[in-house]
Every structure is written in structure tokens, then in C-alpha cells.
Amino acid sequence: MKNISIISSSVRNGRNSHRVALYFKNYLEENDIADVKIIDLKTLDFPIFEERLKFISEPTEAMLSLADDIKNADGIIVVTPEYNGGYPASLKNVIDLLYAEWKRKPIGIATVSAGAFAGSQVITSLQFTLWKIGALVVPAMFPVAMIDKTFDENGNPSDKEATDKKAKSFVAELIWWIEAKQKME
């Protein structure tokens, strides 16, 4: 069984993107696709990092745990809201903390917005950042528009059949990249 970690990026009060992280956890577990862990950046409550992990003389247990979670995951799903055309500082902070852990890591991106464009403006900047550090960003995306109407606070989609169909394709692409990477090791 694959190990997939889901990064829930938003740390805002009243955040809605976490609904999609919960959905993916449920979807992957209910369909026996992967062992899943949600890495919730809100609960980690990290400070702004001044250096990469390998250069921090006394890293905290939470920092080391995050590094292990990323390193040990076969693949990652990043769930990010779009804030003013970009992704949250909390996500950039965690991406920049690590380096080797991201190298050749298959990553699928789920974007979320309150509006009709489904976070489409955040994709390019996040892809570029992940590519620059050597991550394998999968071509499939999972855009979610009007989050408050499409998912409830427990991660249940308003149209389960259509959402599961979209998720099946997105997850299949992530699994393909995970398996391709494993064959190359």
C-alpha cells in the first residue's frame, strides 16, 4: 500500500481548503488506495524559518517530524487556497525549510477558491517553486471552485459522484508517478 501525505496549507481562521484535504483522506482510505496522513500546517504553527533544516543547529521535534513525513511519503497531495493569485506563506515557509526531502517526490496539486476560477492562478507559481527544488509535479490538477458550496466542513462533497470521478483521475495520475519513481530507484 502506498503512503500519501496530504499537506493542508491554509492557517487562516475560517479556512475552507482544509475541507478538500479531509475529502482526499476519506477518498483514499475508503477506496483502499493508500495509507494517509494529513500534515496540517495550522496545527504545526511553525515560525518563519530563517534557514533550511539541514543548517538549523537545534531543530525542533516538529521540524524533524515534518521532514520525516515528507521523506517517507511515496507521494504528496498539496491542498492550497489561492490568496491574491498566490499560495499561502505557510506553504512557502515549509517548502523552503526542506530541500532533499522534496527531490523527485511525486506531488499532486489541489487548488481551492471561493470564486469560480478554482484557484487557477496559484498553479503556475506553486508548480515553478516545486520544480525548482526538484519535485515531480504531476500534470493532473484538482481545482475546486466555490468551496463553500462544493464541500461541507467535514470534507463531504455536494456532488459525490462527480467529485469522486474527478478524484479518481487525479489520484491515478499521482499513483502512476509514484510507481514510475519506484521503478527507477
Q: Mind summarizing the main beta sheet?
A: 5 strands, parallel
CATH homologous superfamily placement: Flavodoxin domain
Order of helices and strands: EHEHHEHEHEHH
Overall CATH class: Alpha Beta
- Count of helical regions: 7
Percent helix, as a range, is 40-55%
Q: Give the termini distance in whole angstroms.
A: 17 Å
Q: What is the averaged pLDDT score?
A: 93
Label the CATH architecture.
3-Layer(aba) Sandwich
Total of domains: 1
Residue stretches low in confidence (pLDDT < 50, at least 5 long) are: none
Question: What's the count of strands?
Answer: 5
The oligomeric status of these chains comes to single chain
Q: Outline, from the CA principal axes?
A: globular
Briefly note the structural class of the backbone: alpha/beta
Strand content: 15-25%
Task: Give structural notes.
- One of its GO terms (molecular function) is FMN binding.
- One of its GO terms (cellular component) is cytosol.
- This protein is α/β, with parallel strands linked by helices.
- It has a 5-stranded parallel beta sheet, with helices on both faces.
- It has one domain: Rossmann fold (3-Layer(aba) Sandwich), CATH 3.40.50.
- It is built from 7 helices and 5 strands; from the N terminus they run βαβααβαβαβαα.
- The protein has helices spanning 18-30, 41-44, 61-72, 89-97, 122-132, 147-150, 160-184; strands spanning 2-8, 34-40, 75-81, 106-112, 136-144.
